Amino acid sequence: MRKLQTVHLPVLPLRGLMIFPNMVLHFDVGRPKSVMALEQGMSDRQKTFLVSQKDENVEDPGWKDLCKVGTIAEIRQVMNLPGENIRVLVEGKSRGVIEETLGDDPCMSAVIRVCEDKVPRSAESKALLRTCQDLFAEYARSSQRVSQETADSIRSVEKPGEAADLLAANVLTKQEDRQEILNELDPVKRLEKVCAILMRETDMADAEKQIQARIRKQVEKNQKDYYLREQIKAIQNELGDRDDAETADLRKRMEETPLNEEARAKCEKELDRMSRMAPGTPEITVSQTYVEWILDLPWGKETEDNLDLNRAREVLNRDHYGMEEVKERIIEYLAVLQLKKDLKGPILCFVGPPGVGKTSIVKAIAEAVGRKFVQMSLGGVRDEAEIRGHRRTYIGSIPGRIISGLKQAGTVNPVFLFDEIDKMSGDFRGDPASAMLEVLDSEQNYAFRDHYLELPFDLSKVMFITTANSMETIPAPLLDRMELIEVPSYTEEEKLQILRRHLMPKQIREHGMRENALKMNEPAMKAMIEGYTREAGVRTLERTAAAVCRKAAVKMLDSGKHTMTVNVKTLHELLGAPRFVREDPEKEPRIGVVNGLAYTSVGGEMLEVECSLMSGKGTLKMTGQLGDVMKESAEAAFSWVRAHSDELHLDPDFYQKQDIHIHVPEGAVPKDGPSAGVTMTTALVSALTGTPVRQNVAMTGEITLRGRVLPIGGLKEKTLAAYRAGIDTLIIPEENRKDLEKIPDYVLAKFRIVPVREIREVLDTALKRN
What we know:
- The chain has 770 residues and is an alpha/beta fold.
- The strands form six sheets. It has a seven-stranded mixed β-sheet with strand order 18-19-17-16-20-23-24. A five-stranded mixed beta barrel has the order 1-3-4-5-6.
- β23 (729-733), α26 and β24 form a beta-alpha-beta unit.
- α4 (160-171) packs antiparallel against α5 (175-183), α8 runs antiparallel to α9 and α24 packs across α27.
């Protein structure tokens, strides 16, 4: 029995490299243990054991990270490189197997069993060697990757083991295949394995040659990049796999996404088209973008609603004072949703003047319900494609803002805000308001089709909320699809509470002050509201509060104080003289001057209507930038006065001898609407009869030719305008009596409300007759 030969050698792990016996290799060494192994080998017979790591990413390998079989190599040359690296030249001598590990400090060392190849003398081994050499020659011709010098050197080798190692070193590229050959200790079996690999590689080389020949016919001008992409395509066709990595990824995503049937069919069609297109075709990007848009939509993804009514009330009341009708409607929706889980999302429209919190309450609604929030501003939108998207025939087309918003939200049931819906307008590119009809119709939006996607997408679970300053510019069909909720102007008391609870604490925080550093008493707050702001909402009030905080910060830093209390006097010092001064109504009645009330997009306003008589031919002149409806109201008032001239003790021919001029001051401001009818009638009667009008009286109402007083809108805003102006008698249409419920009691307590049905009742109240 032959005794096994063993040697004690330092072990040097290789990353991504392998050396066979009878092979010369140079490589760089940089790891500390590897450098120590090299130095120890140089000092001891100039030999070391080179073995490959199983995972080349391991920086500090242990014994379990190394292969068992490696190569005993002789160190031929060592050269120091800049830094701490060393370049070494080695020559493989024989195979070795790790028999026993001896430690890894300062370097790895082990007892290595030397495995010398036995040279077989049988005719079978010689025939195997010749067969292998012939196969390699055929492989060299097919692949054209082997130099003639290498082919001649392999032809001259007579030992099967040495030939197998040389072939493996020149043919095999995979680390796993090379290690498998190195692990085989029997030279004949090793050569058989190499023969099998050579046959496989030769067939592959022939297939590559055919592929390359087919590619050459397709390639124009022999562009390098195009050639490489076509080669990949041809290989994929040969293997029966046409999907590249991106297409395969999209197919996987499609399988995992719960698409509807039409969407799935469209995706499959586009992916099939992509797989048939030549690489680099611009249409690939178009199809890929289209499929990605479909898959990015939140198919079947929805957030779970938080149905806790108490929590919803707490969230809605946290940052918003008043707005009871809005809050009540959301609580009702959550209550019904508890009873009927598949309830369609409501479509609400909050109408009110700027600055009253319409947009911010929608964000609070989303938080209260537990849904994602998406906002789209419609102000100035003129193109229908903003809503429905562009058709795919256009270069650079994309989906509309609704589909984009749902992608952004990531759920099918967000709270979707259409801000300023009354500011939309159409032109030659289409009418976006008409496109909104399908979106805001709960009977149709379950299958909304975007022009880009051309797929039905369910919008029925979305809670759509719109905001507007005025209903007049919203088309009637669109208005009919929404549930209107009026968000009225704030009263002085409501503004006081909002300033105290929300605006001042917020501004104090935003200006870096401590919670109690700046205090403002109630008289100062009222002075700020009445003297420095005149608005329906609280935007200007918030900016004024910010100005107070800034100026207070300067004063505190200059004086070295840490706290400050703002009273009326201090407020005047900080902000200067009040911008608005509330003038009390004139005490003396005046002829031809009547206090009217108007409702504008910024709240209620009190307007004086003046009427003057001149000798002439009966011309009725109206000035003050009045709209058509307001002019018609003046003509109706004039006709009523003419028809009742006897009753009013007027000359029947007065209209032929006198010119009448009706003027509404602030001529730069456009004015329109029918609610000034009673005001103009009263001014006409006062001027024509010489009867003065009480100046503590304000009125509103539309007049007919028969003298009836018809109801008007915006009663709360108009009442608040009269309240701010110090009016104590308010004439309103009888049919508006029901609207008084929406007006705070402390406001009504300041008025004598006079509901009227006919103009005669108005004249009896407003005119001061002897």
